[in-house]
From TrEMBL:
Keywords of this entry: Heme, Iron, Metal-binding
GO molecular function, one term: heme binding
PANTHER family per the UniProt record, alphabetical: ATPASE DOMAIN-CONTAINING PROTEIN, DNA-BINDING PROTEIN-RELATED
Protein name, per record: Cytochrome c domain-containing protein
Length: 398
């Protein structure tokens, strides 16, 4: 079949041709937008799930919805080695620009931009290298005495309040979307929770939408105990059979092509219903099919190609980040779970490796910081990447 017409395109954060199985989340966010616009209180939102389930894609979709409602919207990706001030300032600068085109009081917009600039400039340390200094490109003087104390918790509350008031002036709101939220530094997590708490109490029209790994609720709760009530947590999981079939069928039918039912069975078995894997296997099956429709034989021929692509771009890139000691820990997890997407007991890993649990803590903690594993529950550890255990068992021992 013509590879130029292939509708499938697996990629990090890339929207699939058919966003199947996320209607509930999109409808819920539509309610949030409508309620906030009417001055009704709403909790901020946190999407959690394994890698490859489409959290980043969904986050982008929610941002598009906010923009269609004429909200100010900005999106950032948290990094464990970076403070929140700099990327958040850039995101809110974008949101303020969205609002400025509708605001009738330029002086008021400039006033808020001055507060944003003051907040942003506090991120530049005196000994920072030139490349680490952010020049916000805001052609107004930095405000004094507002969001510039240097205490991120105080400053973030003040900045959020001013930006939300600007949105209220034009009868709309602001959406701040944060991907990989589990990678925020501890002080920034605390500040974000405090700012969202303040906003929820005042009913200000600013909503934070975070996305991260399954242990995000525990990260937020460890920072502020009230975070359990502050955010609405939505678990993003694999697609069920009907949704997975629609993710494959709809794009194929739009190309006036077809796929046999047995081929759909094979694709679902191979992908496990994970959106990223669906795209990878469907793309390979389309390219492998000599004629229309795609058959089960085409899927079987294409599977090794898809698996090789995943091994390099999805699994391998993450595995290469692990040290030898960390790889030993990962392989032990894979052996104990027999390659299934299940958690392993930390004590079981220690017994399997013939080591004391305390001696394995550095490797486990480092893997958690790298986002390769997470604590599924107390005393248990699991892969953040679906099918990672199977991948480890299928490769040669280093």
């Amino acid at each position: 079949m013509d590879p130029i017409r292939n509708p499938f395109a697996p990629g990090a954060g890339q929207r699939p041709p058919e966003l199947a199985g996320r209607e509930r989340e999109l409808t819920a966010f539509e309610v949030v937008l409508q309620r906030v616009a009417r001055g009704r209180p709403e909790r901020s939102l946190v999407l959690t799930g394994l890698r490859g389930v489409g959290k980043t894609v969904l986050l982008g979709e929610l941002r598009s919805m906010a923009v269609k409602h004429k909200w100010g919207a900005g999106k950032i990706e948290a990094r464990p080695d970076a403070e929140l001030r700099r990327p958040l300032s850039a995101a809110l600068h974008r949101a303020i620009r969205d609002l400025a085109v509708r605001h009738r009081a330029p002086d008021r917009v400039e006033e808020v931009l001055g507060v944003l600039k003051a907040f942003a400039l506090r991120s530049s340390k005196a000994d920072a290298k030139p490349r680490d200094r952010w020049q916000p490109g805001i052609d107004v003087p930095a405000a004094q005495g507002r969001a510039d104390s240097g205490d991120i918790e105080i400053d973030l509350v003040e900045l959020f309040t001013d930006v939300a008031e600007l949105a209220a002036d034009v009868g709309t709101g602001v959406a701040l979307l944060i991907d990989e939220i589990q990678d925020l530094q501890a002080d920034d997590v605390s500040a974000l929770c405090a700012a969202c708490h303040e906003l929820s109490q005042s009913g200000a029209p600013l909503v934070v939408v975070g996305a991260g790994l399954p242990h995000v609720p525990a990260v937020l709760s460890a920072s502020k105990s009230y975070s359990e009530r502050l955010f609405r947590y939505v678990r993003i999981d694999r697609l069920n059979r009907e949704e997975a079939d629609r993710a494959v069928l709809a794009p194929i039918e739009r190309e006036d092509a077809g796929i046999e039912p047995e081929a759909l069975d094979a694709l679902f078995d191979a992908s496990g219903g994970y959106p990223y894997f669906i795209q990878a296997y469907a793309k390979a099956a389309w390219d492998a099919a000599p004629d229309d429709p795609i058959t089960v034989q085409d899927v079987q021929v294409a599977a090794p190609e898809a698996e090789q692509e995943l091994a390099v771009g999805f699994f391998g890139s993450r595995y290469e980040r692990a040290t030898p000691a960390e790889r030993e820990y990962l392989r032990a997890m894979a052996e104990l779970t027999q390659g299934r997407d299940e958690s392993a007991g930390t004590s079981d890993v220690a017994v399997y490796l013939g080591r004391k649990p305390s001696s394995l803590s550095p490797a486990r903690d480092s893997l958690m910081k790298k986002g390769l594993v997470y604590s599924a529950e107390r005393g248990h550890i699991a892969f953040t990447v679906p099918h990672f255990g199977h991948y480890l068992l299928s490769r040669a021992v280093d």
